[in-house]
Amino acid sequence: MSEYTFTGGGAYAAPYGQEQVFQFLATAGTTWDNGDTWQIDSAADQGDFMLGAGWVAGINPVYGLALAERMYICAGSQFNFSDNNDPSSWEEQNPGAGYVDLLSNYGIQDTTMSLATYQGMLAVLMQQTIQIWVPNADPTQMVLRQVLSNIGTVASYSVQSLGDWDVVFLSQTGFRSLRVRDSSLNALIVDLGTPIDAIVQNALLGYIPGTTPAPVSIVDPGTGRYWCFLNDTFYVLSYYPNSKITAWNTYLPTFASGENQVSFVPTQIIVYKGRVYVRGTASGTDYVFLYGGASNNVYDKCVATVQTPWLPAKKPSSNKIAFGVDLALRGTWSVSVCMDPTVVNPFSNPGTQVAKLSGSTYDASTPDGIQPGQSGLIALPGRGTHFAFFAQCSDDTPGPNNPVLSALTLVFEGADVS
């Protein structure tokens, strides 16, 4: 940066109200180059202030967040924050505004990617580090609470807060969660995306920043599920700790066109007034989609498929002898069970077919649609240390109540004798 003394100049322009005209001209031997900036620092009885290029001049923000009556933006190796209750004021003369330079634990500047709220604090996610800051109305009193190294995010818009306890984000190895560890409220990284790590890592191979569509995400206000679009698929997390449910679904981005489902590429997704809106492109045409339609009760004809991981029933080293399966279903389902965990892809050629069923076997006195002779436990011989279920609904009738899979239970006894 070069500094030049004001010389020459144009004719004096009388001030008008609080406005004053200045003219900047190159002097002999100097040029005004593209990217050059000007700045005037003024000291006055009312306080110092700055004109021209300030703290946010020339930066390219990649993410913004409103928190604690301020706006925060991140760009490069820093995050900036506006004045209190004034998102248009970011400079030195604004008493609540400021910025923080961030350094990674490797001794070099890391790149800020995203921001999130965490227990009323500010989580700053970089490529290789996560820092948690405690906001304060006085910029000099902002405190760095915690640093988590060797973890970060590769996609700014994959970051979402689940309530005030979890922050889900896409890392280089898959989906991860920033979660409260204990009563100290310190954070730790939870690998809730482990069951689909191999799938996500393969999808990340096709993600080239600036070339392929960037991952985008939301938290569905109706169900509380986390959605993230990556490459060509929505990955959806059903996370309900009180019910001990952590499961991943995949949705394909399609919309109905007559009797056909047409694929589109989401470029942004937001929640507005409790509804999910998606901007996307299909065959070169831009669209804005409203999930659920205008009535919030519109469904497509996609087939539901459920596959469990290998389950050890808390005894991974013990053989199990299966007697049968209990089911509670609505719609017409085809159910398979496999008890051989050495099979690489057990359901490409499904294991033991139970049947195409609809109803419940849990109460033998009310078959509820189960086929004749199957109103009680459905016989299923088998033996193995682990088991997995595969279920697919063949009823593609659209509607809010079809299909439903309520329960699958394998009835077995241990075969090992100590």
Largest sheet: 6 strands, antiparallel
Poorly predicted spans = 365-374
Specify the helix fraction band: under 10%
Per DSSP E runs of 2 or more residues, the count of β-strands stands at: 29
Identify the overall geometry: elongated
CATH topology description of the largest domain:
Methylamine Dehydrogenase, Chain H
Order of helices and strands: EEEEEEEEEEEEEEHEEEEEEEEEEEEEEE
Structural class: mainly beta
Beta-strand share of residues: 35-45%
Key attributes of the depicted protein:
Methylamine Dehydrogenase, Chain H, four-stranded antiparallel β-sheet, 1 helix, mainly beta, 418 residues, single chain, six-stranded antiparallel β-sheet, 2 domains
Can you describe this structure?
The structure is a single chain. With 418 residues, this protein is an all-beta fold. Helix content is 2%, strand content 44%. The protein has one helix at residues 197-204, and strands at 39-42, 49-52, 63-67, 70-75, 78-81, 98-101, 112-118, 121-126, 129-134, 143-149, 160-162, 166-171, 174-180, 187-190, 216-219, 226-230, 233-240, 245-251, 254-257, 260-263, 265-272, 275-282, 285-290, 305-307, 320-338, 352-360, 378-384, 388-393, 404-414. Strands 24, 25, 26, 27, 28 and 29 form a six-stranded antiparallel β-sheet that branches. A four-stranded antiparallel β-sheet has the order 3-4-5-6, with no helix packed on it. A four-stranded antiparallel β-sheet has the order 7-8-9-10, with no helix packed on it. A hairpin with a 2-residue loop joins strand 22 (275-282) and strand 23 (285-290). The longest helix is centred in the middle third of the chain and has 8 residues, at 197-204.
